Each structure stands twice: as structure tokens, then as C-alpha cells.
Fold:
Amino acid sequence: MHDFIHTTHPQRVVFGAGSLRHLAREIDALGAKRALVLCTPEQRPQAERVAASLGAQAAGLFDRAVMHVPVETAREARDLARQLGADCAVALGGGSTTGLGKAIALESGLPIVAIPTTYAGSEMTPIYGLTENGLKKTGKDPRVLPRTVIYDPELSRTLPVGLSVTSGINAIAHAAEGLYAQDSNPVMDLMAEEGIAALARALPAIRTQPDDLAARSDALYGAWLCGGVLGAVGMALHHKLCHTLGGSFNLPHAEVHTVVLPHALAFNADAAPRAMERIARALGGVSAPAAVYALARDNGAPVALKDIGMRAADLDRAADIAVANPYWNPRPFGPAERDAIRALLQRAFDGEPPA
Structure:
């Protein structure tokens, strides 16, 4: 028998090739007049074109978004928005830029228009994260949910294949954990399985032909669904480990998700068999952990923490941090499970198949 609560978040999604042309219209629909355009340093040229297209609607540009949203960067961006009289923010890019927009909204309440160029999915969530003194803290607040999201597959055609794959598997992680979330529901289960399947089709096609617009559209569609799951239900062990590794050891976000996910699924496999069946079916495999590992390995993504900047000497500290304040998980992983988490991290560090 079903027994669940489902909350629908108020959000507008504009999806389709060329939909960036609707940005000015969407800003008007928010009742806003002056937009601060946000981006990473690498995406400044693209952001400048967006700002130029807005003309007088562009209040200015902030190009210092970085991973894990350091609190100092967030304060700098909030101060600039205030100085320029911006009444909304346009976040162009991946999770780093969206996260910066959320940090501005958290304090100021400015509405956000998110324009994702990766498959991170955070644009669909009221979840924010800020890193201070080497620790990443996350929370939920309806003020940070982007009011409008513009998904334009044209903008991701030049996303490097490697980042496309890791970003896509990052999105798959949201849906995978949603399937065994404490507050899961049938709507999210459907979205999760469809989102995983779309990305499983898209990523090999993108590796074969990076500018394939149909594959890019499929990947963005999958990322939208997976992001919707992330925004609606709780996450578990996998996300706790990735927040620990990313926030405390400054590892690259999408790559961490890619490496850790097969091992987190293996840890939870016996405690969440129905979720594992749905993940495996969406990926076209028999074992969910093995299918995720193969998707990464076969498409050139990293499968070892040692290859993305983690030091062996830090594994013990990572295990300690992860179990000190654990998220809910179908298989508990508090201090009593510290050795099992340490072993999981070792396998992920070495790049071994999940066990």
C-alpha cells in the first residue's frame, strides 16, 4: 500500500534548443528590471554575450563562481548585487554558478533565473551549500530555489566529453539515492528511473559524437528529471560522502560523485533491493553498482579517488567526518559503521570495482 507525502515546488521550466532567446521575457515575467549575470571565470565570454543580449536589463557581471561556494565568494557576490541595484540573478553554468546564485538568494531573497550548461541538477532544488573553514554545510530554504530554469541543449554542445560524462553520472546519483530515500514517493520513483535511463542513453552517444544535439537534449532532459528528484526527497550516504570529500578536501564535484556512486550503491544494495532493481533496469544492467561503474569506466570517466586529487593520508579523516553526523540511510552508517565506510573509501580510492 502507498503511504507518502509529495510536495510540488513552484518553478517554471523553459526547455528546448534555442530557448536562451527567451531570457529577457523570463526576467520580465518575474517583475525584475536589472539582472546580475553570474558565471565561472572560464565561462565569462559566454556570460558576456548573455549580458549583451539583455542590454539595459543587465546590471553587471560576476565571474568568480567556484566549486563548493566558499562563504567569502558568496559575500562578495551579494555585496556586488546590492551595489549595482540588481533585483534578480541569472546563473549561467553548472552547479558552482547555480550554488552562488542560491547563496545570494539566501540572504537577499533575489529571484534566480538558472541557465544550466552542465547536468548537475541543482537548479531544480531548494538545497544550498556553503563551505567555511574547510567544512561544507548544506541546508534547505525555499528562497534559494531558482524561480525559472531555461534548459537550452545548444549551450551544452561544447561541454567537454569528460565533464559531460561525470556531470551526467552526478545527476544519476541524485535519482539513484531518491529511489531509496526515506521520503520517496511514486512520482519521484518514475522521474528517477526515467532520468537515469535518459542519461544512460545520452552519455555514450555524446562520447561518440559530442555535438549531437539529440543526445545533448536527452542528457539535459535526464538531468532535469534527476534534479527534480534531488529537490523533492532526501539524499543519503552517497551525498554525505561527496559533501565530505568535496567540501573538506576540495575535490572536483562531478568527478567525486562519479567515483563514489558505485561504492555507495554497493553499501546499500542489500538494504534497498527494489531501488537497485530500478537502477539496474534503467541502466540496462543486472547489478546497479556494477552498471554505474561500467558506465563511468567505458565512457572515459575517472573511477578512482587517487586520480582526482585525493590523498591516501586523508582517507581516515574523511571516514571520521562522514560518520560523525550521518544522513539517514537505508543501511545506517554512524560511528559503529566507521570501518565499513573506511573500507568503502579505500576501494573508491584505488578504483576497484564495487563490492
Observations:
- The chain has a mean pLDDT of 95.
- The beta strands are 12-15, 35-38, 58-62, 88-93, 112-116, 127-132, 135-140, 148-151.
- The chain has 13 helices and eight strands.
